[in-house]
Write a structure and sequence with these properties.
Helix 1 packs across helix 2 and helix 2 crosses helix 3. With 147 residues, this protein is α+β, with helices and mostly antiparallel strands. The chain contains five helices and four strands, in the order H-H-H-E-H-E-E-H-E. It starts with a helix and ends in a 10-residue tail after the last strand. Strands 2-3-1-4 form a four-stranded antiparallel β-sheet.
């Protein structure tokens, strides 16, 4: 990977819908050379995919909660069971295994506090692997680079 590949990645990260012609002009390549590089970045897995960024507030997902979850045991089977449950939970947009006082950090999106309460009680609260739950409701985000 060289400086041109890094420019391509940076540009695509901020605008994944840019045309190949415009991308090539920004990074100083011909369109065909730029396309070959992008295809190679995709083939090697540096570019994992493209997605649409949705306005969740317009879709009813008005509440974002960051939830720290501590597990009751540190066994691989418990982690796998917890991760499978989070993969099946529509409210969970991200699930990260982290270091520190807890094992997992979740980003949860729901329409209302009542829906979050139901997720907290009926999903997290019923898992035998869960020992602690700490919720932080997001009031706003001044920077969000997820795409």
């Amino acid at each position: 990977m060289d400086a041109i590949d890094r420019k391509i990645l940076h540009t695509l990260e901020s605008n994944g819908r840019i045309s190949n012609t415009d991308l090539a002009a920004r990074v100083g390549l011909s369109a065909s050379a730029c396309l070959r590089r992008v295809q190679e970045l995709e083939r090697t897995g540096l570019i994992k995919g493209y997605r649409a960024v949705l306005d969740r507030s317009r879709l009813g997902g008005e509440i974002t909660a960051f939830v720290m979850v501590g597990l009751s045991a540190h066994l691989a089977k418990d982690a796998r069971a917890f991760e499978a449950a989070m993969a099946a939970a529509d409210e969970v947009r991200e699930c990260h295994n982290v270091t520190g006082a807890v094992e997992y950090l979740l980003r949860v999106e729901v329409e209302s506090l009542a829906q979050y309460k139901a997720f907290h009680a009926d999903t997290l609260g019923t898992l035998p692997q869960v020992a602690s739950i700490t919720s932080h409701i997001c009031l706003g985000s001044s920077k969000d680079m997820r795409a």
